[in-house]
Write a structure and sequence with these properties.
Length: 135
Amino acid sequence: MLNLIRKVEVDNFIDSRGNLDVVEISNELNFYVKRMYYISNVPNEESRGGHAHKNLQQIFFAVAGSFTINVFDGESTYPILIEAHKCGYYLTNGLWRELTNFSPNAVCLVLASQHYNSDDYIFDIDEYTRWKKEQ
Ligand code: TYD
């Protein structure tokens, strides 16, 4: 699992003028950003995601607040708490994910390795499990 999900360090520079958080994306990830989006105003009882990506790699951060990503690799589920000013998480392609437990002020920032492509999605978890076994 370690190679499929990796921590992405966030450096914090805090002074009387406010907070600055900085991320340098390691060359080891071989990750180039083609798209970014952010998710906000998610009611606590709602979830986002609920799909897998065949080819897309992503890095998730909490710009504010917190939320949980439940990552499923076809066998096990890994709940990952993502909090503002703490590390982000890189998810490789081929993983199912559901984002839950958004705090009231949470803003989820996602860096994506590819442009939006609806053909890259798997929306049915049984189909995902079958697809994963074939890989
Ligand atoms: P959706 O996949 O439901 O969001 P999430 O994964 O956060 O639950 O996306 C909602 C709508 O936004 C859907 O109509 C597709 C569209 N969308 C884009 O057009 N471009 C994008 O980069 C993303 C992530 C979604």
